[in-house]
Amino acid sequence: MKIRFPAVRRGPGVHLRSQERHSSPKGASAVEFALVVPLFLLLLLGIAEGSWFVLEVSAITNSARTTARWEVVSSNFGAGQMPDCALPSPSAAVVTPAKAAAGPFAGAITSSSITNVAVDDPNGNVIGCTVTIKVTYQPLEQLVRLAPATISSSFTAYID
User: 116 partner at 20 to 30 Å CA-CA among 13, 79, 86, 110?
Assistant: First the structure.
């Protein structure tokens, strides 16, 4: 005995259940877009934040190098003049080249962020200057609560 299934009538106005559940591709694209865009923006902002941090580290390093060189070159050691790095605290004349070399980050440099140390030879003569600049890096985006970081750069310049 053969079992017969009722014939499914197909034609205009008749919809099958599987066709009723079919969604449009436009809705799927919108859902995919909504899932991918926040991740993409987070990645983009992370790249911008990292790039800005590297730029500031580079500027502070350049500022320390330029300031140490300026202290050695501008001091007249032969005439008995003490270099700025032999003074207990940096003068305003030391802050000026440091700010000039820092570029857009000059506002972060103050006289309290610069440390000068005179480099002496075994006889006690000043033979160079070591400049250390410390600044606090403030993150650009406040979406992710990143703690401020301290950037420190040191450079020693010797008298030739």
Answer: 79
Give the CA distances from residue 77 to residues 1, 57, 61, 87, in Å, rounded to whole numbers and listed in that order.
Answer: 118, 31, 26, 14
Q: Which tokens in the block code for residue 156? A: 């020693």
* Residue keyed to tokens 């000039």: 100
List residues bridging with 76 in a β-sheet.
Answer: none
- Helical axes 25-74 vs 92-102, angle rounded to 10°: 150
* Residue 35 banded pLDDT, cuts 50, 70, 90: very high
Show the DSSP H helices in the chain as ranges.
Answer: 17-20, 25-74, 92-102
Lowest mean pLDDT segment, chosen from 48-57, 95-104, 139-148: 139-148
Indicate the pLDDT class of residue 27, thresholds 50, 70 and 90: confident
Decide which of 3 and 8 is more confident: 3
Rg of the Cα atoms in the chain:
33
